[in-house]
C-alpha cells in the first residue's frame, strides 16, 4: 500500500489505535469430542473453511446406510413391473369377458390384484421419499459436527486439541479480520463539525511499522464523553496485504491534501 505525502501545517493530528475490524470466538453448533483440528494460530483462513471436526463415527455410518436406502429403487421397479403385468392381464380378461369366455368374478379378482399392487407401489415410492428426507436430515446433523470459519481472517488463538471435549458453548478458536482494519480515535468536542463520514484521513502506525496510509471515516459517535470532553470516531483502513498489524498505536491526521 503506497504511503501518503506528509500532512500540511494546517492538518490536525490525534492519537489512535489500530484494531481488527472483527473479532470472532468460533463455537460449534453442538458439543462433542474433538477428532480433528485443521489450523494453527497465525494461519489465514477463509469464510466457510472447515476448522475442526467433532467425533462423528456413528453419524457417518448413519449417512452411509441411508444413502443405500435412498438410492435403492429395486422395490419400486419390482412393483411397477408387477403392476404392468397385472394391468395387461386385466385388459386381456376384459376382452375375454366381452366374448363371454370368462365370468365377472374372474375380472373382479384381477381388478382387486391391480388395486392392491398400486397400493404397494405407492407405499414403496413413499418409503423411498421418506428415506431421502431422512438422509437429508442425517447429513444436516453430520454437518453440525464440522466447525467452519464465519469470516475471512487470521487465527488468533486455539483453545482445544484432538481428543479434548468441546462443551456446547465452548469456543475452539478466536479469529480476527485484518482486512480491513478499524482505526479508533477520540477528538475534542470542538472538532465535532470539522469531520464528516467518508472523509479521508492519514494514519501513521507507530514504530516499527513504517508508512502513512489513507483511511476513511466510517462512524462518528453522536454521544459525547462529558468527563473527557471528547467524542469517538472510527475509520476504515484497507489492508489487503496484511502488512499493517492490529493492536497497535498510531497517529491520525485530518485535513490532509489528497
UniProtKB/TrEMBL annotation:
SUPFAM superfamilies: HlyD-like secretion proteins. Keywords: Coiled coil. It holds the Pfam family BSH_CzcB. Residues 121-148 form a coiled coil. Residues 23-175 form the CzcB-like barrel-sandwich hybrid domain. GO terms for molecular function: efflux transmembrane transporter activity. It comes from the Bacteria. GO terms for cellular component: efflux pump complex. NCBIfam families: RND_mfp. Belongs to the membrane fusion protein (MFP) (TC 8.A.1) family. This is Cobalt-zinc-cadmium resistance protein CzcB. The gene is czcB_1.
Amino acid at each position: 500500500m503506497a504511503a501518503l505525502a506528509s500532512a500540511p501545517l494546517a492538518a490536525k493530528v490525534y492519537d489512535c489505535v489500530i484494531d481488527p475490524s472483527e473479532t470472532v470466538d468460533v463455537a460449534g453448533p453442538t458439543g462433542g469430542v474433538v477428532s480433528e483440528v485443521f489450523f494453527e494460530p497465525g494461519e489465514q483462513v477463509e469464510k466457510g473453511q472447515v476448522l475442526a471436526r467433532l467425533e462423528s463415527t456413528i453419524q457417518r455410518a448413519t449417512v452411509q446406510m441411508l444413502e443405500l436406502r435412498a438410492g435403492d429403487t429395486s422395490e419400486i421397479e419390482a412393483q411397477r413391473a408387477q403392476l404392468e403385468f397385472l394391468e395387461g392381464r386385466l385388459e386381456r380378461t376384459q376382452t375375454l369377458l366381452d366374448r363371454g369366455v370368462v365370468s365377472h368374478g374372474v375380472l373382479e379378482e384381477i381388478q382387486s390384484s391391480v388395486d392392491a399392487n398400486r397400493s404397494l407401489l405407492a407405499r414403496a415410492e413413499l418409503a423411498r421419499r421418506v428415506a431421502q428426507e431422512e438422509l437429508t436430515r442425517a447429513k444436516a446433523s453430520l454437518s453440525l459436527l464440522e466447525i467452519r470459519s464465519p469470516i475471512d481472517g487470521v487465527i488468533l488463538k486455539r483453545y482445544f486439541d484432538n481428543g479434548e471435549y468441546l462443551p456446547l458453548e465452548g469456543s475452539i478458536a478466536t479469529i480476527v479480520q485484518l482486512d480491513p482494519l478499524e482505526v479508533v480515535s477520540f477528538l475534542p468536542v470542538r472538532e465535532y463539525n470539522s469531520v464528516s463520514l467518508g472523509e479521508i484521513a492519514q494514519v501513521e502506525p507507530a514504530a516499527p511499522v513504517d508508512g502513512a496510509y489513507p483511511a476513511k471515516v466510517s462512524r462518528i459517535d453522536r454521544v459525547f464523553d462529558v468527563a473527557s470532553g471528547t467524542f469517538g470516531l472510527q475509520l476504515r483502513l484497507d489492508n489487503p496485504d496484511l502488512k499493517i498489524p492490529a493492536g497497535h498505536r498510531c497517529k491520525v491526521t485530518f485535513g490532509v491534501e489528497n
